[in-house]
Amino acid sequence: MIQFATGSGTSSNSTITVYDQNGNQVIPSGTFPGLNGATGITFDPINHDLHVVNYQGNTITVYDQDGNEIKTSGTFPQLNQSYGIAFDPANQYLYVAKPSINVYDQNGNHISVSGTFPNLSTPGGIAVDPMNGHPYVSNNSSNTITVYDQNGNQIPTFGTFPDLSTPDLLTFVP
């Protein structure tokens, strides 16, 4: 069982290393083929799949827990310089950060949402609050975090997320 996985590099020499919760490396039976500048990774707890953003290849590759590639029926269209990725288990959508935010189903089909994800400024990291499904996006250029509903409408926050400096990565701990 995969507990933690790390990807490395925006170069074509990307790898994924798997660890258990105690920090011991686990050698999967698969090889995680098709990586090309892996910059984002998320886990789908429903299907137990990993989705990896390939910055260099403008693709998303899907793997089972053993590192074997899973072919999807969709193609994850409109990817260009994508960076972060997050999975929302409530609606089973994937949110992908790039110069904008794209939404996909688990099979790689683009999902149209009513909102526009306004006020992005070089988005990098993205995480979904599992309690309410709200995506949080780190804006690298403006040193801010922006919060949205599941449809891409901005939600005002009462805090300011002080002391951020070019935030890239983001996770949510419930």
Fill in the keyword field for this structure.
174 residues; mainly beta; Neuraminidase; 0% helix
Structure, described:
The strands form 4 sheets. The protein has a 4-stranded antiparallel beta sheet, with no helix packed on it. It has strands at residues 4-8, 15-19, 25-26, 38-44, 49-54, 59-63, 69-70, 84-88, 93-97, 101-105, 123-128, 135-139, 144-148, 154-155. It is mainly beta and 174 residues long. It contains no helices and 14 strands. The chain has a domain at 4-120: Neuraminidase, CATH 2.120.10.30. The radius of gyration is 15 Å and the shape is globular. The mean pLDDT is 88.
In short:
It contains no helices and 14 strands. The chain has strands spanning 4-8, 15-19, 25-26, 38-44, 49-54, 59-63, 69-70, 84-88, 93-97, 101-105, 123-128, 135-139, 144-148, 154-155. A hairpin with a 5-residue loop joins strand 6 and strand 7.
User: Stretches where pLDDT falls below 50 for ≥5 residues?
Assistant: none
Counted by DSSP, the helix tally is: 0
Strand order of the largest sheet: 4-5-6-7
Q: From the 3D structure, determine the CATH topology of the domain at 4-120.
A: Neuraminidase
CATH superfamily of the domain at 4-120: TolB, C-terminal domain
Text of the CATH class of the domain at 4-120:
Mainly Beta
| Shape verdict | globular
Helices and strands, in N-to-C order?
Answer: EEEEEEEEEEEEEE
**Beta-strand residue percentage:** 35-45%
Helix proportion:
under 10%
How many whole angstroms does the radius of gyration measure?
A: 15 Å
Number of strands: 14
Helix vs. strand class: mainly beta
Q: Which architecture of the domain at 4-120 per CATH?
A: 6 Propeller
Largest sheet, strands/sense/barrel: 4 strands, antiparallel
